[in-house]
């Protein structure tokens, strides 16, 4: 193809020569070059208005790791041929770091070209797919125009569920509440009995209606209960995530979702709380409640502004004694370690799940976790989620 600068220089030179010499042949050359220049520009501009994209995918709902087959048909809707079109299919980098080879083609009048692509959905989330970038050129290569054709078909990629056959929970593996001999855990929604007032009873327990009617002070005694629901906390602190490694975030999500799936299949009550700016929280007791968990974790993004240890301390202050707490994170800081120790001292059942290989845990730290009966699971990558969580282990091992 002719260089645009060479053509422009030739056009200017021919116009100058025509004015200087006045020769008819020179004028003819200058006029011809002007016509070629104008027609080339108009052909590219007109062609850019005549392209139409037909786009389709074989499935709109997938699971991370699966393939989606993409077919796009680009058609020249005009009788004017398109000399050169360079087509590049583009997908979101969050879907997967993929680059596709560009393809060039000549479009005859009303011609349609079909191209197929196979896209591996490496990461979960909500995406739009169907973007095609086309660069058009005229036959002489003088002008080019870049256009973007976008059909924006919605694509949902769910996190992968890693099936777990057995996950070792504390011995009290049932749900509901259990009686405990500690007045600090009175359940003020459940009255056990009513008795006469004794010296030392707090006035908050006085049954005022009955006392007024009988003219003798009576007090209410409440059930002493502890909540045995599993509470799953997912670290979404924005500074604790590596922005260059989506695998960390997806690994945390798949770990949490796999545990939720395991618990709900066994009708074990579970509450998931995400340390994100939206403070996402959800509770379920059976597989009927699984879909909302899937929806939240599909669109999950680490946007939290509160460090995970502060978040855990605040959220667990609302819980009854005896609860099972599972903390899922990729970084064990000293502050988080002290928080987990504090929860264990308050007689919570604590499980720590670390995902990724960025931080190695020292032997002294492992020994501290073991002494405080805090179970530790370390998962290097997503392929290990099932095998690691199924393994029986001692606390802190």
Q: Can you give the helix content as a percent range?
A: 25-40%
Kindly report how far apart the N and C termini lie.
Answer: 69 Å
Biggest sheet strand order reads 14-13-12-15-16-17
Which assembly state applies to the chains in this document? single chain
Cα gyration radius (Å): 34 Å
Q: Tell me, rounded to a whole number, the average pLDDT.
A: 82
Query: Approximately how much beta-strand content do the residues carry?
Result: 25-35%
Low-confidence stretches: 172-190
Structural class: alpha/beta
Short overview:
The protein has helices at residues 4-21, 24-50, 208-214, 246-265, 290-298, 308-316, 334-345, 363-371, 385-390, and strands at residues 51-57, 61-63, 67-76, 82-90, 103-107, 112-120, 125-137, 144-158, 177-179, 186-196, 218-227, 230-234, 270-274, 281-284, 324-329, 349-355, 375-379. It is of the alpha/beta class and 397 residues long.
Characterise the protein shown here.
By secondary structure, the chain is of the alpha/beta class. It is built from 9 helices and 17 strands. The strands form 4 sheets. The chain has a 6-stranded mixed β-sheet, with helices on both faces. A 5-stranded mixed β-sheet has the order 2-8-7-4-5. Strands 1-3-6 form a 3-stranded antiparallel β-sheet. Strand 15 (324-329), helix 7 and strand 16 form a beta-alpha-beta unit. The longest helix is centred in the N-terminal third of the chain and has 27 residues, at 24-50. It is elongated and about 125 Å long.
């Amino acid at each position: 193809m002719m260089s645009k600068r060479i053509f422009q220089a030739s056009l200017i030179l021919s116009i100058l020569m025509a004015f200087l010499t006045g020769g008819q042949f020179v004028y003819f050359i200058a006029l011809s070059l002007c016509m070629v220049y104008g027609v080339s520009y108009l052909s590219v501009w007109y062609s850019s208005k005549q392209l139409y994209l037909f786009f389709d995918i074989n499935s709109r709902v997938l699971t991370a790791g699966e393939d989606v087959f993409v077919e796009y048909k680009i058609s020249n809707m005009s009788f004017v041929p398109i000399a050169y079109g360079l087509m590049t299919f583009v997908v979101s980098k969050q879907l997967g770091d993929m680059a596709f080879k560009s393809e060039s083609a000549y479009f005859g009048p009303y011609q349609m070209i079909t191209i197929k692509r196979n896209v591996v959905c490496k990461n979960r989330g909500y995406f739009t797919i169907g973007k095609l970038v086309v660069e058009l050129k005229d036959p002489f290569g003088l002008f080019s125009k870049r256009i973007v054709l976008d059909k924006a078909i919605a694509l949902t990629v769910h996190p992968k569920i890693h099936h777990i056959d057995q996950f070792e929970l504390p011995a009290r593996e049932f749900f509901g509440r259990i009686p405990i001999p500690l007045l600090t855990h009175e359940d003020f929604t459940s009255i056990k009995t009513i008795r006469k007032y004794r010296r030392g009873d707090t006035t908050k327990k006085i049954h005022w209606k009955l006392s007024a009617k009988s003219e003798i002070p009576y007090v209410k005694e409440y059930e002493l209960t502890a909540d045995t629901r599993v509470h799953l906390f997912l670290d979404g602190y924005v500074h604790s995530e590596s922005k260059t490694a989506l695998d960390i975030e997806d690994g945390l999500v798949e770990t949490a979702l796999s545990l939720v799936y395991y618990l709900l299949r066994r009708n074990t009550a579970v509450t998931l709380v995400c340390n994100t700016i939206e403070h996402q929280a959800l509770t379920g007791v059976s597989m009927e409640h699984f879909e909302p968990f899937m929806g939240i974790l599909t669109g999950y993004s680490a946007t939290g502004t509160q460090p995970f240890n502060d978040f855990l301390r605040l959220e667990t202050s609302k819980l009854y004694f005896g609860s099972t707490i599972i903390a899922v994170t990729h970084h064990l800081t000293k502050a988080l370690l002290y928080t987990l120790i504090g929860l264990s001292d308050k007689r919570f059942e604590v499980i720590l799940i670390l995902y990724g290989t960025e931080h190695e845990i020292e032997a002294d730290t492992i020994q501290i976790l073991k002494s405080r009966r805090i179970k530790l699971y370390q998962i290097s990558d997503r392929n290990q989620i099932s095998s690691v969580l199924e393994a029986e282990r001692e606390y802190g091992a």
